[in-house]
Structure formats: C-alpha cells, structure tokens
Amino acid sequence: MKKQVPVSNAFLPDSGSAKTSKTNNECHIQREDIENEQRMSHSALDELKKHLSEQKFQAVLAEQDKLQDKLQDKQLKAVRQAIATFMPGYSDLQVRRKPQLHMSINKNGEALDTAQLSQGEKSLLALVGDIARRLAMMNPKLDDPLAGEGIVLIDEVDMHLHPKWQRSLVGNITKTFPNCQFVLTTHSPLVISDPQNILCYMMDNGELTKLPNLYGQDANQVLLDVMDTDVRNETVQDELDNILDLIQDGELNQAENKVAQLSKSISPDNIELMKMRLLLRKVAVTHEKDQ
C-alpha cells in the first residue's frame, strides 16, 4: 500500500476560510508576478512587430506561446486546471491591476471580480485552489500534480452551497483529485445520498455508527431516517395528517373545509394538498357508487 501524505486540513467557511482565501490570493499574486516576469512584454512584442514581416512575427508569437507553456508556474497551472475540472464554466483565474488590484475569473464567458461571486462559489474556489496548490507543492516531480496522493479533512463541506453544488460535490472533488482520500462532515442529505461507493457514518454523542448504503435515496427519506428531521413544517404536517384522518373516517365535508383553510396559508399547488384533493374526489365517487 502506498503511503498517503496529509494534504490539507480545510475548515470552511468559518473564520478560517477568510484567512485561507487571503493566503491563497497573496500566493497567487506573488507567483503570477514571477510568471509574468518571464514572459516577453507587450511593448517588446510591439517593437519586434515594427521590424519583422508578418510571417516572421507570427512565428515569434508561436515560439512565445510554447515558451510560456514551459515557463508556466506549476502551482498556478494546477489551480487553474483544478478549477476548470471541478467547476465547469469557470476558467482563467488571474490577477487584475486595473481599475484596482483584484482577482478575476471567467464565468460562462463573462469576466468577473471574484468578490462578485456568491459565498458558496468563493468557498469552493478557495477549497479547490488550496488543495491543488498544496498537491503541486508536495509533488514537484509529477507531470500532473492533481494526481498526487493525500488525505483531506473538510468540516461542514455543504456550508453556503446551493443544493445543486451539494449534490455534485463529492463526484466533482473525487474526479478533480482522484488519488486523494476525503473525510467530510455534513448536515446535507444531498451530499451523502448522491455519490456512490462512499462510507457514511453518523456521529451521536461522540459515538460513530456506520450507515447503510444511501446511494439514490430520496433526500426527504434521508432527513427522516438518518437525520431524524421532519421533511416539512410540523404545523403543516399535522394539518395534512388531520385531513387524511377525516377522509379515512368518511368526514368528507370537514376534510374539504380543512383543505380550503390550509390552501389559504400554503401554496394551492402544494403537491400534498393536491393529493388530498384527488383523494377526496376518489372517495366521494366511491361513496356515490355505493349509494
């Protein structure tokens, strides 16, 4: 068995995340400055263009592109690659100095200041960038640092994330860092029910209990069975249960009145309310046939 190297102990997005993000930004700025110093300046290229034919100038640009690829900072390259893999549609993370110093990223074709992103997006950028940077630092001889091995601990991994991000989180992070082992904590049923081939444990009063396979489970079922949490507001659920009891007891008029009252406080398109209306009609038709 290959030795696993600790990579990152990231606690996001509490006060530690701001510190991590600031450290990542400072590191990115410093390394990008060094990277840029190794490139031919725009002014130098403009001067060359005055003295070369178009064909020779294009050849110089082609050689420049090849050289830039070789001189590209390995850590920055790993960060950019990790972001592109983990967050499709996000690319070209770089430092901008006008109108003021800031980090910029391309999101679905639009250049944005990273400060314009949601807290969830910023947390993911900090997380993915930090892991990629550390892997590159500890695997300088690997052609692909993202293939490096390590153990990553992340507390409250679902914090601030849109449900869509929560659902794809484990799949994306293991695809981006295929040889890392992740130990995550979460309170999201989407995080633990969407991925396959994971080990899931519940901690209660300091004791760990291994959970059965949750792959493909309905999120509401996970809330009920694993997290011991109602899937909807308790008062609304009590009202729905009362309506169902009235229908089963044949008290259809009272049930209809309860449905009408409940429709005033929740959406009339609520699926459970619609089920109650359909059940009322079905029972009413059955009673008419019996008579």
Number of separate strands: 8
Q: What count of helical segments does DSSP give?
A: 11
* Cα end-to-end separation: 75 Å
| Shape type | elongated
What structural category do the secondary elements indicate?
A: alpha/beta
Biggest sheet overview:
3 strands, parallel
Q: Assign the CATH class of the largest domain.
A: Alpha Beta
**Domains counted in the coordinates: how many?**
2
Strand content: 5-15%
Written as H for each helix and E for each strand, in order along the chain, the element string is EHHHHEEEHEHEHEEHHHH
Reported CATH architecture of the largest domain: 3-Layer(aba) Sandwich
Outline the fold blueprint.
Elements: E1 6-11, H1 15-37, H2 42-51, H3 54-71, H4 74-86, E2 90-96, E3 102-107, E4 110-113, H5 119-138, E5 150-155, H6 163-176, E6 180-184, H7 189-193, E7 201-204, E8 207-210, H8 219-225, H9 234-248, H10 252-265, H11 271-290
Parallel strand pairs: 1-5, 5-6
Antiparallel strand pairs: 2-3, 3-4, 7-8
Characterise the protein shown here.
By secondary structure, this protein is an alpha/beta fold. The chain has two domains: 6-186, Rossmann fold; 234-290, no CATH class. The chain contains eleven helices and eight strands. The strands form three sheets. Strands 1-5-6 form a three-stranded parallel beta sheet. A three-stranded antiparallel beta sheet has the order 2-3-4. Strands 7-8 form a two-stranded antiparallel ribbon. Strand 2 and strand 3 (102-107) form a beta hairpin. Helix 10 packs antiparallel against helix 11 (271-290). The longest helix has 23 residues, at 15-37. The chain is elongated. The N and C termini lie far apart (75 Å).
